[in-house]
Design brief:
The chain is an alpha/beta fold. The protein is 30% helix and 20% strand. It is built from twelve helices and 13 strands. The strands form three sheets. It has an eight-stranded mixed beta sheet with strand order 2-1-3-4-8-7-13-9, with helices on both faces. Strands 10-12-11 form a three-stranded antiparallel beta sheet. The longest helix has 15 residues. Bound molecules: thiamine diphosphate (TPP), iron/sulfur cluster and magnesium ion (MG). The site of iron/sulfur cluster has 12 residues, from loops. Iron/sulfur cluster (SF4) binds next to loops.
Length: 348
């Protein structure tokens, strides 16, 4: 009789020796099929693959089903669930207190474009280094499906009410005001979203990802423009998005011709392979024009809409100390009595 010793199954580890389980969080309490759950899965995969230490990440969110979702991934990271629409000011404080942390914001269309629009635009205009994800379902899911400010004019609610107001396009707002990596994707497009998230991790400025994320309970019916069916039928991808992390790039050859390569801040390559469009994502005016045209044509334009890897971010602009403010000793951060007296003297 032969004996075999049973070995525990070998798990794949990333470049910092962690398994994908190290990137998981609590069990989701969102509805089955909710787009937000799919986005959480993509976040887990992208952070695992890029080998980001969970302890280096601060997750920030507002209020909503979407804003609950950081509880369902990266349980080992720092986390702060702010007030409705107020995540940007908390994110700004956290990023300034410790610029070595990687800030990841998760918000909803209501949280960002309705109550939070004032905070949102000021975060984007500062080009604060962070990844800001809008899980966009066109409704206030948590409070039972009222239209949000991203709901399209003419869209029908589950109870048959027609929205008469024009939508806020968060991509247009973000591009116009200063964000430096702006993209739109769909929670059902696994490959595109996964690739965009990996590229976002290599960017040092405000990344704004507007992800159409259907609410299966309140906004997935006929007449909705944020349903799975509508997005699948009307999606217009600008390009095929590919990404080569800096730690792999030595082994990779690029096809010339129909692709545009963008070198990211850490040396990684974002590769945008043209589809039928001749689209330049470094041209701000063109990006806004295409978004407006696609809105008029009732298309859901997806892809990397705008990217600028040369603009200074807020941490550079304010000449931040190399050592994070959070860990500087009080002897450095607290002005001496003499310095205060000199200051008072100047004001006399
Ligand atoms: C100051 C304040 N106003 C209103 C509410 C009620 N409220 C909670 S969540 C929410 C909307 C959430 O919508 P969204 O951000 O789109 O998230 P979703 O649930 O759709 O993911 C509202 C209006 C609140 N919590 N706080
Ligand atoms: S109500 Fe809508 S947004 Fe909220 S968890 Fe359910 S499906 Fe998702
Ligand atoms: Mg919503």
């Amino acid at each position: 009789m032969s004996t075999t010793t049973s070995q525990p199954p070998r798990q794949n580890t990333n470049r910092i020796g962690l398994t994908v389980l190290d990137y998981r969080g609590g069990k989701t309490t969102l509805c089955a099929g909710c787009g937000h759950n799919a986005i959480s899965e993509r976040i887990i995969d992208a952070f695992f693959e890029m080998g980001v230490a969970p302890e280096r990440v601060i997750k920030v969110s507002g209020i909503g089903c979407s804003s609950k979702s950081p509880a369902y991934f990266m349980g080992r990271s720092h986390s702060f669930n702010a007030l409705h629409g107020r995540m940007p000011s908390v994110a700004t404080g956290a990023a300034l207190a410790n610029h070595l942390l990687l800030a990841l914001g998760v918000s909803g269309d209501g949280d960002t474009a309705s109550i939070g629009i004032g905070q949102f635009v000021h975060l984007m205009r500062r080009n604060l280094p962070m990844i800001y994800i809008i899980e966009n379902n066109g409704v206030y899911g948590l409070t039972k499906g009222q239209f949000s400010a991203t709901s399209d004019a003419g869209a029908k609610s589950k109870s048959g009410v027609v929205n008469e107001l024009q939508p806020v396009d968060c991509c247009v707002e973000a591009i116009q005001i200063g964000a430096t990596f702006v993209a739109r994707s769909f929670s059902g497009d696994k490959r595109q979203l996964h690739t965009m998230l990996k590229a976002a991790l290599s960017h040092r400025g405000s990344v704004m990802l507007d992800v159409i994320s259907p609410c299966t309970t309140f906004n997935d019916h006929e007449g909705s423009t944020k349903s799975y069916k509508f997005v699948k039928d009307h999606e217009e991808p600008l390009h095929d998005v590919d990404f080569v992390p800096h730690f792999h790039s030595i082994d990779v050859d690029y096809d010339e011709g129909s692709s545009l390569n963008v070198t990211m801040h850490d040396g990684s390559s974002l590769r945008l392979k043209k589809l039928e469009h001749d689209y330049d994502p470094t041209n701000k005016v063109e990006a806004v024009k295409r978004l407006i045209q696609s809105h008029d044509a009732e298309e859901v334009l997806t892809g990397v809409l705008y990217v600028n890897t040369t603009a200074p971010n807020f941490i550079d602009m304010i000449n931040m100390t190399d050592e994070p403010l959070a860990t500087l000793p009080e002897s450095v951060t607290r002005p001496s009595r003499q310095a205060l007296e000199e200051c008072m003297e100047e004001l006399r």
